[in-house]
Amino acid sequence: MLERIKKQSLKKLIIMSLNIIRMLVIKLTNKSSRVSLIQNLHPTTEIKISKKGEISLSHSVFTRRYVSFRVESGTLSIGTSFFNQGCSVTAMNCITIGENCLFGPNVVIVDHDHDYSYLDNRRGNHYKYGEVIIGNNVWIGANTVILRNTTIGDGCVIGAGCVIRGNIQHTIK
Question: Which residues of the chain have pLDDT under 50?
């Protein structure tokens, strides 16, 4: 481990140190969250957790520029996975992402929709909630949108530009 650290550039070491500090702040300010101190988050990665929210980040979640993890309420659990630039994950109920998942640029994952059945001035402030479960070893192509009430099974590959809702299972053996 020490040999690996010695081979890193100064810039990389600074980013690693900042990530450890960010994870410590999350642990201290959100007692129910479980995060590994060792992360590979780009400095522009946004992590927002409300008081009702809970986040769990496995060892070495890797992000590129402008990735956003938002937990408005509910839980967000992410295994060791890679998020390319511009990905957005917003949890208001429950999002679970397995191990070794790859996300192309600009993927959006949400576990809620606006409930527009209200006709009064509260319209747009009500939500319908569901879950998103993404298995292990899943590859999600660029510009894909994953909506509430979606389960993507282990080993699935989702093509670029798809809008996904429902149950997707890996069928090729």
Answer: 1
